[in-house]
Amino acid sequence: MNMNKEEKVVVVGAGLMGTGIAHGFASSGYPTLLVDTNADSLNRAKDSIESILNAGVKLGKVSEESAQASLARLIICRDLSEAAAGAHWLVETVSEQLAVKKAVVTQAEPLLAPGAIIATNTSALSVTEIAAAVPSPDRVIGMHFFNPVHKMKLIELVRGLATSDETVVRTRALCDAMGKTSIIVNESPGLTTSRMSALLGNEAMYMLQEGTASAEDIDTALRLGFNHPMGPLELGDLTGWDTRLSVLKYLHQSLGEKFRPCPLIIKMVAAGRLGRKTGSGVYRYEEGKQVPNSGLKASAL
């Protein structure tokens, strides 16, 4: 399927994922509007996208002309209704709260172009429940990107109960146009990757809590023993332990005891040690560098 690069894409939420997704669309040739109610978040997102593009130019992966064209295609906006008007695609990546996601799609849906597709970047919540908030649930699909979006090739496309075959085909073609590889997942708590990652990260935290090995050695074991690009504790710091805890609570409720959150995660979140975004998690982050927290134990938190 040939994609029309004139179709307008709206990305809602200027956090880490929204920033990466907006960069992905703009750099793939799509006019892209990034929406957030927080002006500071929007400005940080635009600066981050410009930094990604500049880094690509320095590495010779992107031409200066292409980088400037990508920036020209990106518009930041605080008004969802204004941004959604006439858009052909809407990708929401707001906080992992069902009520918030429903509110976004309910507000935007009447303003989108006829036949527009609504995608949710949720990693754990029900696409079917989100789709129930709009009159045409057949045009709602999960589009789960991975961080950092500009480096990660995979997108999980999640079929809700009402998602149509046409929506799947069109969205898969959009992924192809972005240079991504998509897989099709029938809606299930945690999908494929989040379910496995949550279980692995939770077990790694139990090992850390019990003193089985240091954080550095647990992460090294997964990187070198299983060829993972990043250890589970490093990944938790990158994702944010508040996000990981929210996913684990949902999976625990949905799938049972094997997903019960490790007490150390709960304690870290309560202490505000969320990972990279707060400068401290399992590791400390100083001037952009990861520094071991020597002797980290549950009692130390």
TrEMBL record:
GO BP terms in the entry: fatty acid metabolic process
GO MF terms held by the record: NAD+ binding; oxidoreductase activity, acting on the CH-OH group of donors, NAD or NADP as acceptor
Transmembrane spans: none
Domain 3-hydroxyacyl-CoA dehydrogenase C-terminal: 192-285
Naturally occurring in which organism (per UniProt): Pseudomonas borbori
Record-given protein name: 3-hydroxyacyl-CoA dehydrogenase
Gene3D superfamilies for this protein: N-(1-d-carboxylethyl)-l-norvaline Dehydrogenase, domain 2 (1.10.1040.10), NAD(P)-binding Rossmann-like Domain (3.40.50.720)
Binding-site positions, NAD(+): G13, A14, G15, L16, M17, G18, D36, E96, K101, S123, N147, K277
